[in-house]
Design a protein that fits this description.
The protein contains 6 helices and no strands. It has about 110 residues and is an all-alpha fold. Helix 3 runs antiparallel to helix 4 and helix 5 runs antiparallel to helix 6. The longest helix has 23 residues. The protein starts with a helix and ends with a helix.
Amino acid sequence: MSIEQRMEKLEYYCSLMLDMIAPETKPFYTLVIRHGLTKEEVEHTLRLCEQLSEQYKQQKEEGFVIFTSLFHEFASSLHPNLPLAETIDALKKQQLFVPLMTEFQRLLHTFNE
């Protein structure tokens, strides 16, 4: 069996295993796998969320009520393979950066009206 055939087989098995687990338990990781991100790309996304989450907390403490700049930074820095709304929902459902993602959902809803 060639390396290409073995890789195809592994990719197929990974897709089957992804369908076997309940995607609702880890929706962000499911999204990452489905869109083929690398470990470095995922780590970049999580670092971005961590930084924005800290800025969000700081701005809230300072009395800010509008966070569109954080939202735009997230949207422009998000990996192009990750759909914005789906990523925000997945992070929130997986209990990652919940206050920030809740705010981003609100802003997304406002922009879509």
